[in-house]
Write a structure and sequence with these properties.
alpha/beta; UDP-N-acetylmuramoyl-L-alanine:D-glutamate ligase; nine-stranded mixed sheet; five-stranded mixed sheet; 38% helix; globular; Carb_kinase_PfkB-like; transferase; kinase activity; kinase; Carbohydrate kinase PfkB domain-containing protein
């Protein structure tokens, strides 16, 4: 089976459930937002968390996708940067526990990246994100050896802010014979760096994952038309439309895949990442575009039933059964 290596911000999610939203106001974190914070703010939050019950989980967009792939049994690796602290060790151990090869570089200057996650009583999630060591990965730290033995490189769009680093990664991956998959990550990032996204997709990227907001930010068009535009630039284009399913196009072949209907959406965090995991797993198995899309829908339909981007271990056997029955 083909192997996939992910590259992204190595973040540890620290999740705390709130009784009310008073703490959010105290921390000056707008409810439902993702706010980048500095080390001082992180220390203040950590002091609060030390008096609360918290859960740890590996996070970051590419990290979530690689976790989903590993849980399905795919051969996986991950490139990122952490510190040699408690969170960095947790991230490394979590990857290794699932059989993922951990290409984790170590920062001696900054602590590991942390997404402090506040879960309100209504299920809304608010993030205070400290990138720390995750954001210090540099082009010169990458080597061709990291990419050898893999068929696909999956990159999260959050990395495009460092043009030199992402270009170096893609060039090394191409030299090693990999196909490059890009998840656009966020519509505001696409808007801010539109020209660079265009360069990447036209020149290097083989597979593009975008939700409808990201696709519109990139093309100015609604999903159907956006899909056609993106598909002319790369090998496979995927536009995710939430409850309306997804559109997939490769050359002249186009598929619409329905979303999996769920009784109650608990939390949509990680839905796009898990869709990508399912789709890429299908590709590694040699499945049709439709089956790849349906596999993605099964994973995304399950992850929105839990808080956080990690499913109970016992769910995976049922998920694998559903995939085998497609």
């Amino acid at each position: 089976m083909d192997k996939i290596i992910g590259m992204g911000n190595a973040l540890v999610d620290v999740l705390a459930t709130l009784n009310d939203d008073h703490l959010l106001k105290e921390m000056d974190l707008p409810k439902g937002s993702m706010t980048l914070i500095d080390e001082n703010k992180l220390q203040i939050i950590n002091e609060c968390f030390s008096q609360m019950e918290t859960q740890l989980a590996t996070g970051g967009s590419a990290g979530n996708a690689i976790r989903g792939l590993a849980c399905l049994g795919a051969g996986t690796g991950f490139i990122g940067k952490v510190s040699n602290d408690t969170y960095g060790k947790f991230y490394r151990e979590s990857l290794l526990e699932r059989g993922t090869e951990a290409n984790l570089l170590v920062s001696t200057e900054l602590p590991s990246g942390v997404a402090s996650t506040f879960i309100s009583p209504d299920g809304e999630r608010t993030f205070g994100t400290y990138l720390g060591a995750a954001a210090t990965l540099k082009a010169e730290e990458l080597s061709r050896e990291m990419f050898k033995g893999y068929t696909y490189l999956f990159i999260e769009g959050y990395l495009v802010q460092d043009h030199d680093m992402i270009l170096r990664a893609i060039e090394l991956a191409k030299e090693a014979g990999l196909q490059v998959c890009l998840d656009m990550a966020s519509y505001n990032i696409v808007e801010q760096d539109h020209e660079f996204f265009s360069l990447l997709i036209n020149k290097y990227v083989d597979i593009v994952f975008a939700n409808e907001e990201e696709a519109k930010a990139f093309t100015g068009k609604e999903p159907q038309e956006a899909l056609g535009i993106i598909a002319k630039m790369c090998s496979i284009a995927i536009v995710k439309m939430g409850a309306k399913g997804s559109l997939i196009r490769k050359g002249t072949e186009e598929v619409h895949v329905d979303a999996v209907v769920v009784d109650r959406v608990i939390d949509t965090t990680g839905a796009g990442d898990y869709f990508a995991a399912g789709f890429l797993y299908g590709l590694t198995c040699g499945h049709s575009l439709e089956k790849c899309g349906k596999t993605g829908s099964i994973l995304s339909g399950n992850i929105i039933r839990v808080i956080g981007a990690e499913m109970p271990a016992e769910w995976w056997e049922d998920i694998k059964t559903k995939i085998s029955e497609l």
